[in-house]
Design goal:
By secondary structure, the chain is α/β, with parallel strands linked by helices. The protein has a single domain, classed as 3 Solenoid (UDP N-Acetylglucosamine Acyltransferase, domain 1). It has 4 helices and 19 strands. It has helices at 7-12, 21-39, 45-55, 120-124, and strands spanning 58-59, 64-65, 69-71, 77-79, 84-85, 89-92, 97-99, 104-105, 110-112, 114-115, 129-130, 133-135, 140-141, 146-147, 152-153, 158-159, 164-165, 173-176, 181-185. The chain has a 7-stranded mixed beta sheet with strand order 2-5-8-13-16-18-19, with no helix packed on it. β18 (173-176) and β19 (181-185) form a beta hairpin. α2 packs antiparallel against α3.
Length: 187
């Protein structure tokens, strides 16, 4: 590709990129912080909070993310206040992930921003891109739910356990299944 931007600039813009040394260095630092967080003792919440604040782009007050917690970079994740994420959250933040206030995240939820070309040549050459994920306030993501690249979930929505969210969901609904479909409104 004939583009004067660095691969990191391409990645941050949401364009196709290939992992290079600069991107790899960011991943290595995130892996160091992630390992420290995952090994941190549960009886030292201040230490856990300090690591989480260093790892993530921002994290609101009274937020708890139970280890193990997995990220690509961490720095592209914004978590609101009073969020609870149970064990095993995977948040692959090649593109930004925004989690609103009062969100409940069940065990082993996956928030996946990376995408890959469908064409075999660019995919074989390791080109990739990403699309952001936005989770509105007071959303509940049931255990094992998967949210795919580019999805926005509106406030007060409940996503059932094991659902695969492939497209945007409006606020105030219950959605279940693979692909997730709206069953009904919630009060």
């Amino acid at each position: 590709m004939n583009d004067a931007r660095t691969m990191k600039e391409r990645m941050l813009a949401g364009d196709l990129y290939i992992t290079d040394e600069e991107i790899l260095a960011d991943q290595v630092e995130a892996q160091r912080l992630m390992a420290a967080y995952n090994a941190s003792p549960s009886n030292d919440p201040a230490q856990r909070r300090q690591i989480l604040e260093e790892l993530l782009g921002s994290v609101g007050e009274d937020t708890e993310i139970r280890p193990p917690f997995y990220v690509d970079y961490g720095s592209r994740i914004r978590v609101g206040a009073r969020v609870f994420a149970n064990f095993g959250l995977t948040a692959l933040d090649v593109a930004p992930i925004t989690i609103g206030d009062d969100v409940q995240i069940g065990p082993h939820v996956q928030l996946l921003t990376p995408t890959h070309p469908i064409e075999p040549g660019p995919r074989r050459d390791k080109w990739e891109a990403a699309l952001p994920i936005t989770i509105g306030d007071n959303v509940w993501l049931g255990g094992g739910a998967i949210v795919l690249p580019g999805v926005t979930i509106g406030a007060h929505t409940v996503v059932g356990a094991g659902a695969v969210v492939t497209k945007d969901l409006p606020g105030g609904v219950l959605a279940v299944g693979n692909p997730a479909r709206v069953l009904r409104a919630v009060d």
